[in-house]
Specification:
The protein is of the alpha+beta class. A two-stranded antiparallel sheet has the order 1-2. The chain has a two-stranded antiparallel sheet with strand order 3-4. Helices cover about 40% and strands about 20% of the residues.
Length: about 80
C-alpha cells in the first residue's frame, strides 16, 4: 500500500515569497508544520515558517476525510 494522503501532502512543495526581498522560493509543507527556518537563496535572510492556525498540519487529514466522505457509498 502507498503513502497516505497526509504523508504525500507533507512532502509536497509550496511556493512562497521571501518577506525581505520578494524572491520566490520553494519550501516543503513539512517545513511549515515543523515551523523551521529557511534561508532565502537570493538575499540570505533567515525566514521562519509559521503555521499560526495549524492549517498546514491538518490539511492532509482533512483532504483524506473529504475524499473518503465523497467516495462513501459509491462502491456497494
Amino acid at each position: 500500500m502507498g503513502e497516505s494522503l497526509a504523508t504525500q501532502f507533507l512532502s509536497a512543495d509550496l511556493e512562497t515569497a521571501c518577506p525581505a526581498c520578494g524572491y520566490l522560493m520553494w519550501v516543503r509543507y513539512s517545513e511549515v508544520v515543523a515551523q523551521t527556518a529557511v534561508t532565502c537563496p537570493c538575499c540570505y535572510t533567515q525566514v521562519w515558517l509559521v503555521d499560526e492556525t495549524g492549517s498546514a498540519q491538518n490539511a492532509g487529514d482533512v483532504i483524506q476525510q473529504q475524499i473518503t466522505q465523497a467516495l462513501k457509498g459509491l462502491f456497494r
